[in-house]
Amino acid sequence: MKREYGISRIDQPEKKNHGFYVRITHNGKSNQKYFPDKASGGKGKALTAAKKYRDGVVAKLPKAKKDSIASRRTKIKQSGVVGVTHVVAKAPDGKKTYAYWQAAWDDKGTRRTAKFSISRYGDKEALAMAKKAVKKKGK
Protein backbone atom coordinates (compact mmCIF):
# COMPACT_ATOMS: atom_id res chain seq x y z
CA MET A 1 0.00 0.00 0.00
CA LYS A 2 1.21 3.50 -0.77
CA ARG A 3 2.64 5.08 2.40
CA GLU A 4 0.30 8.08 2.25
CA TYR A 5 -2.76 6.26 0.89
CA GLY A 6 -5.89 7.94 2.27
CA ILE A 7 -3.89 10.57 4.20
CA SER A 8 -3.77 14.25 3.28
CA ARG A 9 -1.74 17.03 4.84
CA ILE A 10 -3.69 20.13 5.91
CA ASP A 11 -1.77 23.39 6.37
CA GLN A 12 -3.84 26.54 6.81
CA PRO A 13 -1.66 29.08 8.66
CA GLU A 14 -4.34 31.77 8.53
CA LYS A 15 -6.63 29.50 10.57
CA LYS A 16 -3.77 28.00 12.63
CA ASN A 17 -4.87 24.64 11.28
CA HIS A 18 -2.09 22.06 10.74
CA GLY A 19 -2.47 18.29 10.74
CA PHE A 20 -3.29 15.13 8.82
CA TYR A 21 -6.71 14.16 7.50
CA VAL A 22 -7.58 10.52 6.86
CA ARG A 23 -10.41 9.61 4.48
CA ILE A 24 -11.14 6.07 3.30
CA THR A 25 -14.33 5.47 1.30
CA HIS A 26 -15.79 2.09 0.40
CA ASN A 27 -19.25 1.35 -1.02
CA GLY A 28 -20.38 4.91 -0.34
CA LYS A 29 -19.40 4.78 3.35
CA SER A 30 -16.69 7.22 4.36
CA ASN A 31 -14.37 6.82 7.35
CA GLN A 32 -12.66 10.10 8.13
CA LYS A 33 -10.75 11.64 10.98
CA TYR A 34 -8.49 14.65 11.52
CA PHE A 35 -5.24 14.49 13.50
CA PRO A 36 -4.02 18.00 14.43
CA ASP A 37 -0.28 18.48 15.03
CA LYS A 38 -0.69 20.41 18.27
CA ALA A 39 -3.11 17.99 19.97
CA SER A 40 -1.11 14.96 18.79
CA GLY A 41 2.20 16.18 20.16
CA GLY A 42 3.79 17.34 16.91
CA LYS A 43 3.78 16.67 13.18
CA GLY A 44 5.49 13.27 13.43
CA LYS A 45 3.14 11.96 16.10
CA ALA A 46 0.12 13.26 14.17
CA LEU A 47 1.26 11.35 11.07
CA THR A 48 1.87 8.19 13.11
CA ALA A 49 -1.63 8.42 14.62
CA ALA A 50 -3.17 9.04 11.19
CA LYS A 51 -1.40 5.98 9.73
CA LYS A 52 -2.50 3.81 12.65
CA TYR A 53 -6.13 4.90 12.21
CA ARG A 54 -5.93 4.41 8.42
CA ASP A 55 -4.42 0.93 8.79
CA GLY A 56 -7.20 -0.04 11.21
CA VAL A 57 -9.87 1.08 8.75
CA VAL A 58 -8.16 -0.68 5.81
CA ALA A 59 -7.83 -3.91 7.83
CA LYS A 60 -11.64 -4.09 8.08
CA LEU A 61 -12.15 -3.76 4.30
CA PRO A 62 -12.90 -6.76 2.05
CA LYS A 63 -9.90 -8.58 0.57
CA ALA A 64 -10.61 -7.32 -2.98
CA LYS A 65 -10.46 -3.69 -1.86
CA LYS A 66 -7.22 -4.30 0.09
CA ASP A 67 -5.69 -5.96 -2.99
CA SER A 68 -6.74 -2.98 -5.12
CA ILE A 69 -5.11 -0.56 -2.68
CA ALA A 70 -1.90 -2.62 -2.57
CA SER A 71 -1.55 -2.76 -6.38
CA ARG A 72 -1.58 1.00 -6.91
CA ARG A 73 1.56 2.58 -8.26
CA THR A 74 3.64 4.27 -5.63
CA LYS A 75 5.71 6.64 -7.77
CA ILE A 76 4.77 8.71 -10.78
CA LYS A 77 7.67 9.61 -13.04
CA GLN A 78 8.24 13.34 -13.34
CA SER A 79 9.55 14.97 -16.51
CA GLY A 80 10.30 18.40 -15.08
CA VAL A 81 8.70 19.99 -18.15
CA VAL A 82 5.16 21.40 -18.34
CA GLY A 83 3.23 19.43 -20.98
CA VAL A 84 5.33 16.25 -20.73
CA THR A 85 3.71 13.38 -18.86
CA HIS A 86 4.60 9.74 -18.20
CA VAL A 87 1.64 7.47 -19.00
CA VAL A 88 1.02 3.78 -18.37
CA ALA A 89 -2.08 2.56 -20.21
CA LYS A 90 -3.74 -0.84 -20.35
CA ALA A 91 -4.74 -2.57 -23.57
CA PRO A 92 -8.49 -3.06 -24.08
CA ASP A 93 -8.16 -6.72 -23.02
CA GLY A 94 -6.56 -5.55 -19.77
CA LYS A 95 -3.68 -8.01 -20.05
CA LYS A 96 -0.90 -5.85 -21.46
CA THR A 97 0.28 -2.41 -20.41
CA TYR A 98 1.96 0.24 -22.53
CA ALA A 99 4.27 2.91 -21.14
CA TYR A 100 5.04 6.10 -23.01
CA TRP A 101 5.95 9.77 -22.60
CA GLN A 102 3.28 12.11 -23.88
CA ALA A 103 3.80 15.67 -25.10
CA ALA A 104 0.84 18.06 -25.00
CA TRP A 105 0.61 21.64 -26.26
CA ASP A 106 -1.90 24.26 -27.39
CA ASP A 107 -2.21 24.81 -31.15
CA LYS A 108 -4.36 27.92 -31.72
CA GLY A 109 -6.90 26.89 -29.09
CA THR A 110 -6.80 23.16 -29.87
CA ARG A 111 -5.03 20.68 -27.60
CA ARG A 112 -2.52 18.54 -29.49
CA THR A 113 -0.60 15.51 -28.22
CA ALA A 114 2.18 13.20 -29.34
CA LYS A 115 3.12 9.87 -27.75
CA PHE A 116 6.61 8.39 -27.60
CA SER A 117 6.82 4.68 -26.80
CA ILE A 118 9.26 3.62 -24.10
CA SER A 119 9.44 0.06 -25.47
CA ARG A 120 10.35 1.40 -28.92
CA TYR A 121 12.73 4.25 -28.03
CA GLY A 122 13.79 3.52 -24.44
CA ASP A 123 12.90 5.70 -21.46
CA LYS A 124 15.54 8.41 -21.88
CA GLU A 125 15.09 8.81 -25.65
CA ALA A 126 11.27 8.84 -25.45
CA LEU A 127 11.45 11.51 -22.73
CA ALA A 128 13.88 13.61 -24.78
CA MET A 129 11.61 13.33 -27.83
CA ALA A 130 8.56 14.42 -25.83
CA LYS A 131 10.44 17.41 -24.37
CA LYS A 132 11.62 18.41 -27.84
CA ALA A 133 8.09 18.12 -29.26
CA VAL A 134 6.66 20.40 -26.56
CA LYS A 135 9.45 22.94 -27.00
CA LYS A 136 9.18 22.96 -30.82
CA LYS A 137 5.40 22.78 -31.29
CA GLY A 138 4.34 24.61 -28.13
CA LYS A 139 5.71 27.93 -29.47
Could you list some keywords that capture this structure?
alpha+beta; 6 strands; 3-stranded antiparallel sheet; 35% helix; single chain; 2 domains; 5 helices; 139 residues
Summarize the structure in words.
- This protein has 139 residues and is an alpha+beta fold.
- It has two domains: 7-70, no CATH class; 84-137, no CATH class.
- The chain is built from five helices and six strands.
- A three-stranded antiparallel beta sheet has the order 1-2-3.
- Strand 2 (17-26) and strand 3 form a beta hairpin.
- The chain is extended, with a radius of gyration of 20 Å.
Largest sheet: 3 strands, antiparallel
Radius of gyration using CA atoms only = 20 Å
Q: Give the strand order, joined by hyphens, for the main sheet.
A: 1-2-3
Number of helices: 5
Q: Count the beta strands.
A: 6
> Could you give the distance between the termini?
41 Å
Helix and strand content put the structural class at: alpha+beta
Secondary-structure map with pairings?
Blueprint: E1 7-12, E2 17-26, E3 29-36, H1 37-40, H2 43-59, H3 63-70, E4 84-90, E5 97-107, E6 110-117, H4 118-121, H5 123-137
Antiparallel strand pairs: 1-2, 2-3, 4-5, 5-6
Could you give a quick summary of the protein structure above?
With 139 residues, the chain is of the alpha+beta class.
